[in-house]
Amino acid sequence: MKAVVIKAFGGPEGLSVVDVPAPEPSAGEVLVAVESIGVGGVDALTRSGSLAAWGFREGLVPGSEVAGTVIAVGHETDSSWIGQRVWAFTGLGGGYAEQAIAAVEDVVPLPTGLSAAGSVTLGGSGVVAHFGLKHARFSSGESVLVRGAAGSIGILAVHLAAQGGASAVAVTTSSAARGELLREVGATHVLDRSGAGDDTAPPAYDVIIDVVAGPHLPMFLDKLRPNGRLVAVGAIAGPPPVDLGTALMANFRKSLSFATFSADTVPPAERRTVRTAQFAAAADGRLPLVIHEQLPLDDAVLAHQKMQDGEVFGRIVLEPA
Ligand SMILES: NC(=O)c1ccc[n+]([C@@H]2O[C@H](COP(=O)([O-])OP(=O)(O)OC[C@H]3O[C@@H](n4cnc5c(N)ncnc54)[C@H](OP(=O)(O)O)[C@@H]3O)[C@@H](O)[C@H]2O)c1
């Protein structure tokens, strides 16, 4: 079957389309004939090599979320999965391929009304946004800033905060046009990447959901209200500087909290419950599904080039067929 591998860490050109044997499901796994593959910021980090310490190595087929039809199951695995249209999390990789393996606990049936392409903009990101806000102990009436809001995690965090009764939902983004799109999903204030640019925005927030991290993260601790919580759900700009702790302690009298959040710490049954509810909401049009562009699997390099050039709002979806 056709797949995309990381031939060499670095830029998008390190990705290569190759022919590999189709994978075979083991016990507790299904094999999915892939229709749609979600391309996210984490795939760019994987390709670059910056996640090598976490097991994302050269030679890996990247991609962690796909949707399609189950065509086989491992031994002692419920055969009623066969023929079902599903969304599936493929783990560390394996997603950029015509066929992909997933553990049954990470497979969710697609409801009528939710396309395969739509599901791969939501399945991974929606859970991160939901549980990231929960990790931040967000409650109705509080103000929220989403930093790096133009990706699928950010878009869903904005929408869920607004739906959850936030008193204000500010976003950071690099363009006014993106700001307008973010207003459509619930943003009330649009800031530039430094957190400035709207004099009517609250001076500080109860909760910051940060997809970016990187060298400027400590500046955003100053944008927390007393008892404010900043939760880093991503690190698109790399790790924060080593003096992050100093910046936190400099705000000692504000009783601030800094936390990281990974969906890996959410029990699989809870992830499934939230995903299933979010898929139903999306099928009814109650959750936004932002597909930037659908491209053939053969164009994986182009998809990553577009991410690198900062062109992507929401998600690019790759399609094998
Ligand atoms: N917590 C978890 O369990 C979990 C799960 C999956 C992925 N992740 C993490 O989530 C991140 C990817 O999320 P995503 O796919 O939603 O994001 P994304 O689409 O890669 O990026 C979101 C936005 O961030 C802004 N941005 C990019 N580089 C920036 C920089 N250097 N400084 C400031 N802003 C920048 C860009 O918007 P503008 O140009 O408009 O500013 C971009 O559109 C990765 O770090 C990944 O590891 C976490």
Strand content: 25-35%
Here the CATH topology of the largest domain equals Quinone Oxidoreductase, Chain A, domain 1
Per DSSP E runs of 2 or more residues, the count of β-strands stands at 15
Shape: globular
CATH level 1 class label of the largest domain: Alpha Beta
- What composes the largest sheet? 7 strands, mixed
The rounded Rg comes to 19 Å
What is bound: which ligands?
A: NADP nicotinamide-adenine-dinucleotide phosphate
Percent helix, as a range, is: 25-40%
Question: What's the oligomerization state?
Answer: single chain
The ordered H/E elements are EEEHEEEEHHEHEHEEHEHEHEHE
Secondary-structure class: alpha/beta
Provide the number of structural domains. Answer: 2
Calculate the mean pLDDT score and round it: 97
Separation of termini? 12 Å
- Taking pLDDT < 50 over at least 5 consecutive residues as the criterion, the unreliable ranges are none
Number of helices: 9
CATH superfamily of the largest domain: Medium-chain alcohol dehydrogenases, catalytic domain
- Specify the CATH architecture of the largest domain: Alpha-Beta Complex
